[in-house]
Amino acid sequence: MLFLFKVLARWPLWLMHGLGAGLGWLTYAVSPSYRKRLVTHATWAGVSKRQTRGAIAEAGRMLMELPYLWLRPPESSILTKVQWRGADLLEAAHANQQGVVILTPHMGCFEIAAQAIAERYLNQQRHITVLYRPARKPWLRDLVGTARTRPGLYAAPANLVGVRQLLRAVRDGQMAGLLPDQVPPEGMGVWAPFFGRPAYTMTLAARLAHHPGAALLLLWCERLPWGRGYVIHVSKPTEPMPGPQAPQAESAAFINRCMERLILQCPQQYLWGYNRYKSGRDTEPSSVSVTKD
């Protein structure tokens, strides 16, 4: 399998995206549980049928671009494929040498964002640490762990060790990136509304953002058609974040609303098939309000 990944990494991105679209539809066709979850989640969010169909192909494109992103030679610049919107926000935080918390949903090409930030802004003194969930298969776990570590880019596993790495990065004035719509392990989240439904939501994102002096930025990476590249969109939250003394569920709901606004900018590039509403053991969502603003 690793040999196949190495072969695919050499193929042009436009071809990988074309094959990925077919793979997305094939997965949708042969997996009833995946198909039901994707359609149900998109419907809950009010996504149109046309946008939902687009999300089917985009999920496959996301998978097929991974060999290139993971196995690209370190000396090969990714910046030639990237455009920026709102880069001044990153530049200001970088110039101030303050801790920066970057939040992005399972949307577009989130893999490429950290690589591009590391290459454009960071060096031996400045780096970004990103949280990831280790794969279950040993060969893939080793590949992902090494592929996501590049100059200026550190990968932290989604466990207590990784949490400490992210907290230390923000405390030391570095950048930390994570996907707050990732379902956390049992005991590391609270129930909060996500597109009007109770979702077990990590508390880590708000904890990082509450660090004194830390800047909170929102980001998503748009995948352009047929391998033409990517556009990284950077913004600030449109509402004030609850203070550090606010209940965790209130801060988690704020983070979820931030993610919702990003997702609705381009819902066809969100992974609606991701099992966002699963829960840890012995957790009960019944007490969560699902009233939307």
- The shape, in one word, is globular
Strand content: 15-25%
SSE arrangement, N to C: HHHHHEHEHEHEHEEEHEEH
| Mean residue pLDDT | 87
- Biggest sheet, open or closed, and with what strands and sense? 7 strands, mixed
The helix-and-strand class reads alpha/beta
Number of helical elements: 11
Terminal CA distance reads 47 Å
Could you name the ranges where pLDDT drops below 50 across 5 or more consecutive residues? 281-293
Strand order of the largest sheet: 1-9-8-2-5-3-4
Kindly state the number of beta strands: 9
Rg, nearest Å: 18 Å
Helix coverage percent: 40-55%
Structural description of this entry:
The protein has eleven helices and nine strands. The protein is of the alpha/beta class and 293 residues long. The strands form two sheets. A seven-stranded mixed beta sheet has the order 1-9-8-2-5-3-4, sandwiched between helices. Strands 6-7 form a two-stranded antiparallel ribbon.
Provide tags for this entry.
two-stranded antiparallel ribbon; alpha/beta; 9 strands; seven-stranded mixed sheet
Give the SSE layout.
Blueprint: H1 2-8, H2 13-30, H3 32-44, H4 49-64, H5 66-71, E1 82-85, H6 87-96, E2 100-103, H7 110-121, E3 128-132, H8 138-147, E4 153-157, H9 160-171, E5 175-178, E6 189-194, E7 197-202, H10 204-209, E8 215-223, E9 230-235, H11 248-263
Parallel strand pairs: 1-9, 2-5, 2-8, 3-4, 3-5
Antiparallel strand pairs: 6-7, 8-9
Short structural summary:
With 293 residues, the chain is α/β, with parallel strands linked by helices. Helix content is 43%, strand content 17%.
